[in-house]
């Protein structure tokens, strides 16, 4: 048995589930039912416990059942019987606990239950603005390294302070010493963030290419880390911040640092965001998530929990067949949703626990 599998998912007043105790199978779990009945909510609860974040980028309070003041999602891990819980409350920052004992921040659960989720919303990683791609990197790296998460938090706080100074400087320019108070933090943390991101992208790139070629029938793909400025070391960033202060005051925001960077994603040598077809973009996103899954498995010694939200219906038969081959070969515990069980394919269904969802009620068969 793997050292971390979800034995039971328990929900209390979460989304459209007043109460739920759901025992999961150790390998494949197929969750079927019409749209709008609560299938994705189950994945979101697992994602919340794993990452401390909701799937859809919404406010935490929106996951609380209508008319209630709080919600809880609890995962019991086997074979250790460890309980991981996230509690949401109206008007209060979310809280987390391990075996009933509170932890300082909900993000302290990161790494306890590694997971990779693939959903339609992930198409924004390819299609949307650089912020979506930076978020992908930051979430993956934070799950791999608490030190990265701390570095990111310090960087964001220092960036907020420097940006506030930039806006205030239109009235009166602060002294150099005050600028350097925050710029030193930005330079120290920013250099570390860029180094970690570049290394992670270099790790993912060949994995992405392999999965995209497998699922896409031989199409080549590539990812590369793109900096908006060339500064990498502490000294280079400090010099860039000092040189750019006047221009940054005029624009009212900081133009230097990793908060402006991007990932270049290409298919067939062309930028996927601008020139990729819908099928190519979808395949690229799936391949990117599978690359992250393999990287997680290498780090933690076993595959992460894989969450697939109705992705088979958006693929043609050839790509779906190739994706199933990959999942059968390398995935660990997997939870996938679909409107009809047959969409999962006979190979997965033959090894799966099957659940049906209707109006916030889950039955097994």
Describe the protein's architecture and organization.
The protein is an alpha/beta fold and 365 residues long. It folds into 2 domains: 1-114 and 304-365, P-loop containing nucleotide triphosphate hydrolases (Rossmann fold), CATH 3.40.50.300; 121-301, RecF/RecN/SMC, N-terminal domain (Glutathione S-transferase Yfyf (Class Pi), Chain A, domain 2), CATH 1.20.1050. It has 11 helices and 15 strands. The chain has helices at residues 39-51, 124-127, 130-144, 146-168, 176-216, 234-243, 245-251, 272-275, 278-300, 317-330, 346-349, and strands at residues 5-14, 17-23, 28-32, 70-78, 82-89, 92-98, 101-102, 115-118, 221-226, 262-267, 270-271, 305-309, 334-338, 352-358, 361-364. Strands 2-1-4-5-6-7 form a 6-stranded antiparallel sheet, with helices on one face. A 6-stranded mixed sheet has the order 8-12-13-3-14-15, sandwiched between helices. β5 (82-89) and β6 form a beta hairpin. α5 (176-216) crosses α9 (278-300). The model has no long low-confidence stretch (mean pLDDT 94).
